[in-house]
Amino acid sequence: MSSMSQGGLTSGGLTITGSSVALGGHYDRVKIVGEGSIEGDVQSNKLKVMGTLEMNGRLQTKDIHVVGTAVFSDHVQAATAKVTGTATVAGNVQIQELRCSGAMEVAGNVRSERFILKGELKAKGACEVDQFTVRGMFHIGGLLNAGRLDIKLYQDCSADEIGGEKITIKKASLLNPFNLFFFRPDAKASLTTNVIEGDQIYIEYTKAGIVRGKRVTIGPGCEIGAVEYKESLELMSGSTVKQKRKI
């Protein structure tokens, strides 16, 4: 049976069990155990989803934990978030520290100081992160920009362009006994992008139109249209580079 809970400014919490609809508001803690729907914006200290949540409004909270399924119709802003289930966001995502070992789908942009991805990310917009650590797969429609980018390819990945200070792209080890994340690594996994630009670049199993950097190392399994480098270029066997030029 469905019920309606009244939201509003409160120091207490909101708990949805069974099948309920609640109004948005200011809460200390929001917990979803059954099938919940929230109509309106929410400000809280903590949001935990262990069932299913559909939220029609903007979320601003300190901490998010999604074990089940959460669907947000607007922007999501938080200090920390952990997704081990599935999260879908129709707006932008701005989270200082984001850990995802499940699946995230974002219609807008993603901004984070630290993003640890051990599952799957699909973002139609740009992704701007200070430190991006990947042990999984991603598809980013816009620019992936990170100060430090550390990618281990588990499945095929893609981004329109990739930029950063230190960029490392390697294939995940198939022999690692701790490969028990969202999925196991694929031996044929590769990354596809139009442009990679950074200061220090090491890439493997990457398909790119242009790679541009100060110190560039092209590892095995790469198909590169052109490499432009300022200081050094190292080409390992097993890759194809059509053009090389020092700039």
Shape, per Cα inertia axes: elongated
N-to-C SSE series?
A: EEEEEEEEEEEEEEEEEEE
Would you tell me the structural class of the helices and strands?
A: mainly beta
Intertermini distance: 68 Å
- Mean residue pLDDT: 92
Which range best describes the helical content: under 10%, 10-25%, 25-40%, 40-55%, 55-70% or over 70%? under 10%
User: Low-confidence runs (pLDDT<50, min 5 residues)?
Assistant: 1-11, 177-181
Q: How many beta-strand segments?
A: 19
Counted by DSSP, the helix tally is 0
Spatial strand sequence of the major β-sheet: 4-5-7-9-11-13-14-12-10-8-6
Q: How would you characterize the largest beta sheet?
A: 11 strands, parallel, barrel
Strand coverage percent: over 45%
Rg, Cα atoms, Å:
21 Å
Instruction: Note the quaternary state here.
Output: single chain
